[in-house]
Amino acid sequence: MSINLESEPTVAPGFSEKAPLERYVEPARPSLVGRSRGQLAAALAELGVPSAHRNMRVQQLWHWLYVRGVTTFEVMTNVSKELRAALENRFTLARPEVVAEQISVDGTRKWLLRLPGENPDKRPHEVECVYIPETGRGTLCVSSQVGCTLNCTFCHTGTQRLVRNLTAGEIVGQIMVARDRLGDWPGERPPEGAIIPTDGGRSVTNIVMMGMGEPLYNFEAVRDALLVVADNEGIAISKRKITVSTSGVVPNIKRTGEEIGVMLAVSLHAVRNDLRNELVPLNRKYPIEMLLEACRNYPGLTNAKRITFEYVMLKGINDSLSDAKALVRLLAGIPAKINLIPFNPWPGARHECADWETIEKFSEVVFNAGYSAPVRTPRGRDILAACGQLKSATEKLSVRERMALRAMAMTE
Ligand code: SAH
Ligand code: SF4
After folding, report:
1. Cys-Cys link to 344, which of 46, 253, 386, 411 (CB 3.0-4.6 A)?
2. Of all protein residues, whose CA lies closest to atom 8 belonging to ligand 2?
3. Quick check: CB of 214 below 6 Å from ligand 2?
4. CA angle at residue 151 from 145 to 155, to 5 degrees?
5. Is any atom of ligand 2 closer than 6 Å to the C-beta of 148?
6. Do residues 34 and 225 lie in contact, with contact meaning Cβ atoms separated by under 8 Å?
7. Which residues of 69-102 are buried (b: 16+ CB within 10 A; e: fewer)?
8. What per-residue confidence (pLDDT) applies to 286?
9. How many angstroms separate the alpha carbon of residue 51 from the centre of ligand 2?
10. pTM
C-alpha cells in the first residue's frame, strides 16, 4: 500500500486537541543553559566579543556549561574578568527551579520543577522529571510540555488543561538539574545513600522523552535540546541512548530520524483503528497504517537500531491473546522491540491494569514470535512517578486521592 505522508490527512470526526494556552516569554536576564554553539556565539557578539575571538570563547563556555556543569560565571577562570562581568550582567546559568524532590524506596527520584508562566503575575507552571537507576544505567525521563494537548484515555498527563511548550533550555535544564542533584559532574559525589548505577560511570546515562507532553508536538525545541545533549564535546549522551516517544505524530517521525537521529518509541497500545481511535485519539488523524508506514521508513532503522513499540496492558480492552497475535502480525517486517507496560492507575482513571497472568500469556505470544518482550515493571509507584502518572501539582491531589494512591501502591 502506498500512503502519502506529506499531505495533511482528512481527520475523522471526534478528534479534538487542546490548544497551547501559554507561550514562553524570555526574562530580562535569560539563562545560557540549553543554547547551541551558534546561539552562544550570538550572545557573545551581542556583548561585543570580536568575531575573531568568538569561536574560542564559545568552546570555553561550552565546556564550562556542559562538561563541568558550573552554575556561576565567576569560576570560569580562563575567561577574562571583563567578559565574565559582562556575561553575568546580561545572562544567568539558571536551571529550572527544583520545588520538591521525592525519593522512592527503589531509588527512583522525582523532581518537581517550576517554570515561569507567560505573565509574571500568573501562577508558574510545574513539570516533573524522573530518574530511574538500574545496575548498568541511569535513565532520566524528561518532559517536553507542561500538560499535553492530546487526551489519551489512560494517561493522567492528558487530563491537565493547561499546556505550554517547554523551551530547549528548559529541556536541557532538566538534565542539568538531575546531574546537579546526583552529583554527576566531574569532581562531585552522589548524595549519601543514593542509588546509582554500580559500574562507577556516570549517573545519568540514558534519556527518554517520556515525561509530560508529546515531544513531536514541540519538535524544534526537542530537536535543539537533544542535539545539545548528544554533542560529544559536552553532555555527550550518545544518540543510541536517547529515545523520543510519540503517540504517533506521523509527519514528524521522519524529521526525528533525519534531524535528530535518536531512537524512536511509538505508543501503539491497540492493533485496530476502532480501538486505537478511542485510546489514542490522535489515531483519528494518523491511523495505524499511516503510522506503521512512517515507522517502516524511519531513517537509520536497522536490526541493531529497532523501534520500540509501547503497549499499555488494559484489562479487558487490549489484552486478549488474539490482540497479541494481531500485534506480531502487524509489526512483521519492522525491526521492532515490544514493551508491554502494565497500566499505572491514577485516581479517576477509567481503566484497570490487566491481570499478571494475562500479561504473562500475552508476552509469551510476543516472545514466541521472536521479540524480546520485557514487561516493564513500574518504578517509583510510591512517589507517583511511573508512566502516565506525571501530572504536575498545578492541579493538586486531594487527601482522599492521595490515600487511594497509597492504597493502590500497597496492594502491588
Ligand atoms: N506523549 C508521548 C510520551 C509521553 S507518555 C507518548 O504518548 O508516547 C510515555 C509513555 O507512557 C507512553 O507510551 C504512554 O502511552 C505511556 N502511558 C501513559 N499513561 C500511562 C499509564 N497510566 N500507565 C502506563 N503507561 C502509560
Ligand atoms: Fe499526551 Fe502521551 Fe499522555 Fe497521550 S500518552 S495524553 S500523547 S502524554
Report:
1. 386
2. 213
3. yes
4. 80
5. yes
6. yes
7. bebebeebeebeeebbebbeeebbbbbbeeeeeb
8. 97
9. 45
10. 0.90
Q: Per-residue pLDDT tens for 364-396?
A: 999 999 987 767 666 666 666 665 665 544 344
Local structure of residue 353 (DSSP, 8 states): B
392 lines ligand 2 (CB under 6 A): no
- 176 Cα–ligand 2 center, Å: 24
Name the closest-CA residue to atom 4, ligand 2: 152
Distance from CA of residue 190 to its chain's centroid?
A: 23
Q: Please state, as a whole number, how many other Cβ atoms lie within 10 Å of the Cβ of residue 407.
A: 9
214: Cβ below 6 Å to ligand 1? yes
Q: What are phi and psi of 32, to 5 degrees?
A: -85, -10
User: Which residue type is seen at 180?
Assistant: D
396 vs 341, more confident: 341
Residue with CA at minimum distance from ligand 2 atom 6: 158
Show the beta-strand stretches assigned E in 162-260. Answer: 164-165, 206-209, 242-246
Asked whether the predicted pLDDT for residue 26 surpasses 90, the reply is no
